[in-house]
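ok, trying the design again with the full structure, not the truncated one.
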C-alpha cells in the first residue's frame, strides 16, 4: 500500500496562515491592553479630581451653592437639565477629556471623555438619563460611534449625528451602587476640522455635549 503524497507547499501555506492569525491576535491583544490602560488612567483622573474637590468642600458640603455627595460628586436633581454652554452650570460635572465651553455646549477632545454626578436621594431601581449631543465627521465620512460606560458597566453604543439630538441611557441598580456615577464615553473616530480642510480648528472632536438630564 503506497504512502499518501505529502504536499509540502500546502503545509507551508497552512503554517503561514496560522502564523498570520497568531500575529493578528497578538496585535488585537496589545490594542485591548492599551485601551484598558487608557480607561484606567482616565478613571484615576476622575478619582484624583474627586479627592481634590473633597478637600475644597465647606463643612456643610456646599460649594458655591452646589450640593455634593459625601464622596465629592456633584448632585444632580431629577428633571432639572444641566447645561454645558458658556452660560450653563455644567463645569462641576466634567471629569476629564473636555475642551472649553462654547455658546451651544462643549466638545469632548480626543476619543475619551467622562462626566461625574451623584443621584439625588437615590433609593434603588433603574435610572434613565438623557444626553443631548452632537458629533463631527469629515465630509462623506461615516458617523462616529460612541460607547457609554457607567461605573465600569457597558450601557450602549450610539451613532452621533451632526445636529443636536437626544440619547437615552438606562442604568441598572448594580451599576448605580450608592448613587455616585462616573460616566465614560469612548469615541471610535475623533477627527479635527483642520484635518478635513473645513477650518483651522485642530482639536480632535469627540462628543459634542449640550445637556444632561435625569428622568
Amino acid at each position: 500500500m503506497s504512502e499518501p503524497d505529502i504536499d509540502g507547499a500546502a503545509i507551508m501555506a497552512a503554517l503561514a496562515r496560522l502564523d498570520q492569525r497568531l500575529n493578528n491576535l497578538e496585535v488585537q491583544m496589545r490594542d485591548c491592553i492599551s485601551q484598558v490602560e487608557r480607561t484606567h488612567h482616565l478613571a484615576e483622573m476622575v478619582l484624583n479630581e474627586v479627592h481634590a474637590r473633597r478637600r475644597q468642600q465647606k463643612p456643610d458640603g456646599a460649594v458655591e451653592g452646589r450640593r455634593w455627595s459625601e464622596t465629592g460628586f456633584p448632585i444632580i436633581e431629577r428633571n432639572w437639565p444641566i447645561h454645558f454652554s458658556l452660560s450653563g452650570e455644567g463645569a462641576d460635572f466634567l471629569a476629564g477629556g473636555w475642551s472649553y465651553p462654547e455658546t451651544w455646549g462643549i466638545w469632548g477632545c480626543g476619543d475619551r471623555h467622562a462626566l461625574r454626578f451623584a443621584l439625588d436621594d437615590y433609593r434603588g431601581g433603574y435610572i434613565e438619563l438623557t444626553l443631548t449631543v452632537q458629533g463631527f465627521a469629515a465630509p462623506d465620512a461615516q458617523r462616529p460611534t460612541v460607547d457609554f460606560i457607567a461605573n465600569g458597566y457597558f450601557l450602549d453604543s450610539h451613532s452621533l449625528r451632526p445636529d443636536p439630538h437626544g440619547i437615552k441611557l438606562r442604568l441598572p441598580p448594580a451599576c448605580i451602587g450608592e448613587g455616585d456615577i462616573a460616566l465614560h464615553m469612548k469615541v471610535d473616530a475623533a477627527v479635527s476640522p483642520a484635518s478635513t480642510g473645513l477650518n483651522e480648528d485642530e482639536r480632535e472632536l469627540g462628543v459634542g455635549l449640550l445637556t444632561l438630564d435625569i428622568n
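Keeping the full-length input from now on. The helical segments are 8-56, 173-176, 193-196.
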